[in-house]
Amino acid sequence: MTASNVHRLNEEQCPIPEEILGQMHDSNPVDAASVAADLPEPQRAQLAAFCYERRHLHHLGLIIASTCNRPALRKAFGLAGDVVFKQSRKPDATVAEERRNTHHLSPKPITLATFVRPMDDEDDTRNG
Prior knowledge:
By secondary structure, the chain is mostly helical. It is 66% helix and 0% strand.
């Protein structure tokens, strides 16, 4: 099995050509929403779900979801469709809130204890 076949088995396929997704990712939110608006709504909702599930495309997923109605999002997201519908109506506020929560819950840095070798009786006699 080639690496690309393994990738296909483990990764959900993007519902649009990757070139278009790349253009949407690199464009401003208004242009991305405009490109998404040209797609049929079921495909838009699937694209919103695809992006929403990926951290680096999450904001784009919310923008695309904002162009969909609640039933289409329910079909694409399942029970989470209602939540995504609500979040997508204020995507910037949603992303800002998620960043605050992530920063607040981020793990504390790990510090390593320094090892201090205990002094032997011999060390006492040498130093004293």
